[in-house]
Design a protein that fits this description.
Structural class: alpha+beta
Bound molecules: iron/sulfur cluster
Largest sheet: 5 strands, mixed
Radius of gyration: 21 Å
Oligomer: single chain
Number of helices: 20
Distance between the termini: 44 Å
Shape: globular
Number of domains: 2
Order of helices and strands: HEHEHHHEEHEEEEHHHHHHEHHHHHHHH
Strand order of the largest sheet: 5-2-6-7-8
Length: 456
Amino acid sequence: MTLSVLDIFKIGIGPSSSHTMGPMNAARRFVLDLVDKGQLARTTQVGVQLYGSLALTGRGHCTDRAVLLGLEGHAPEGLDPAIVEPTLERIRASSRLRLAGTKEIAFDEPMDLLWHRDQTLPGHSNGMRFTALDAARTVLCREEYYSIGGGFVARADELDTPAAAAAAIQVPFPFESAGELLDKARASGLDLHELVLANEAAYRQPAATRAALLNIWAIMQACIERGFHAQGLLPGVLKLRRRAPKLYRQLTETGSASPMAAMDWVNAFALAVNEENAAGGRIVTAPTNGAAGIVPAVMSYYRRFEPGGSDEGVLRFLLVGGAIGMLYKKNASISGAEMGCQGEVGVACSMAAGGIVAALNGTNEQIENAAEIGMEHNLGLTCDPIAGLVQIPCIERNAMGAVKAINAARLAMRGDGTHKVTLDQVIATMRQTGEDMSAIYKETSQGGLAVNVPEC
Ligand code: SF4
């Protein structure tokens, strides 16, 4: 499977990459297929069925809203968060929607969008079925899609075969494991970020990669700024008050002479991103929405507190962090519905740990060591969001993951890169642990905090 760092860092909206962005992408793909097949004009009804984890936690994760927007042709990366509410109000008040933005049909949401909480499609816990019918109720098209983590979507027939476009890209240094990545870097004499940049050249010119990654960084910073200045409660039954604005005010107005002030800032950066995510704001998957605060918090720490922090360091961070995310995507999963939270916050922590070592000009071996430590101490982390909202434990967990990533990097940089457990071994362990984990801890809100803490 060939991936780009821009597959790992994707621009979208909150609150969930698997339950919001994935379903929006799937719904959009379905209607664009209708357009391509010349069936849009004949379509008078669309039915959507949600299964498994999507049905169990989809309301809290805004899956229904995402599907409606996707059917209207919206994509997460281009969607202006400001138009979301008016669009949904129009659809729901009129019981009509505009397929692909052009073909208006009746849409009776309680009948046309069904939640199958007791059923799972065979390919993945996050399954969806879309059906288009004509006026005689003849089925024009029916497809099953799966949201497989990080906003990635696969049609049922694509689950085991990489998409043709991805398979067609030939990169100079293909790698399937961390061991192979290190071997190729050693043989070529390249630092990891140089090797990844060379691979990215198969997708676009190096200058375009740099510009895209700096844009990713700009969107992350804008998200933190919005999170620092927003007010009020987060959406949903928990009625959680945002904490980042108060922490930001405390840090800027009163300052802190504490030797732990940097940690307060890391917490503030991460809370700001994940509160924005919970509120449906503009976000970068890193590698998912639920875990989107860790990489920006650690990069912000790097820029604010590490002497010599620079945009060049940010680029090294994103190139290497993206490559580490690819290793998890290729060899395990970045889906909370498959791996529990170790596949989201654990992976983000590993990416950020390796990324900051690259930013600080650590060796390739120290990077691999940091990424391994970042995951080793997240193994077994469950996903049990209260009320199916990406809020508790998710928001605070990003702050914890960011601090852990920085410590993993510091531990690795005090050594020479030699260590006992390899990154490949810890990725394999994460996959096996995720496979063994009970389904109640995999984004179903049927266990853990979700059943032990009252919703309101
Ligand atoms: S607990 Fe972790 S995996 Fe589950 S929704 Fe929250 S951030 Fe995502």
